[in-house]
Amino acid sequence: MTLLEVDQLVVDYGAVRALDGATLSVARGETVGIVGESGSGKSTLGSAIGGLLPKAAEVTGGEVKVDGSVVGSMSARELRALRSTRLGYVFQEPIGSLDPTMRIGRQVALALRGRASRADVLDRLATVKLADPARVARGYPHQLSGGMAQRVAIAMAMAAEPELLIADEPTAALDSQVRDEVLDLVFALAAEAGTTILWLSHDLPAVARRCSRVAVMYGGRVVESGPASAVLAEPRHPYTAALAGSVPGAVSEGQRLVAIPGQPPVLSGASPGCSFAPRCPAVLESCAGERPRSHVSGGHDVLCHRASETVGAAR
Fold first, then answer.
1. What angle do CA 12, 303, 60 make, to 5 degrees?
2. pTM of the shown model
3. 3-state class percentages of the chain: helix first, strand second, coil last, to nearest 5
4. 309 assigned to some structural domain
5. What is the distance between the alpha carbons of residues 110 and 139, in angstroms, rounded to a whole number?
6. Is 135 found in the same domain as 184?
7. Does 194 share its domain with 237?
8. How many structural domains is the chain composed of?
């Protein structure tokens, strides 16, 4: 059953187009990784789902539905209810998502809808494996390490056992050991609560290990999606192939990583063709002026004029 449906979503920041017809469908219980270079539209997509786009952003086309309800048509009250009961967010900078003037215990209590006892708060903090929940509850955000602050943010995001958790690079600011611990925690808590995960990430190997499905974004569109292990092992879109080939560990010992040539596009409107065409090693004449349509190739949904070919086979 579909929980989240993004249909041809277009978002502009003034003269810059961040999403250029992004389309994505997520079923209940799925763990979906959204990958792509910086500027591909991942964070804008994540914010749009909860109606959290900044004032500078304007939705100029398409729509987002959560369990059949159109987010763009919701009143301010309905949006607050959506965020507090059905959606959970974990952001990249944990300190920035916490109120610096309020003790941690009070913030967790509010996330538990304000009716939580002290025991409830401490239990929630213990659930995210904080060593001394009572001390953490008495403290302020600036007194926590990055890993501790992110655990608090996770506790608050999961307090209402949301239907959908949107995790936007939640471990980017953490060291490698803490990163794995925090990711283990996120996925374990979500599995226990039956929460669907949408994980925005640059870490392709981790997405392949942890997610059931992956969606690859480029130029504000989802250019390929499908089972995570299959998409990253046998990509059908040239960008997915290039992205997977540029990851450390993707090449044999002694071989050089192959960087993707050129730069991601900065769009000022709808891309007239495939936005990856200027960087693509398999470009066709039609790519520059004809927008590719979605095709099913090898069990993947692919936006590419050459989708019927295994374009990633030679990477």
1. 20
2. 0.92
3. 35, 25, 40
4. no
5. 16
6. no
7. yes
8. 2
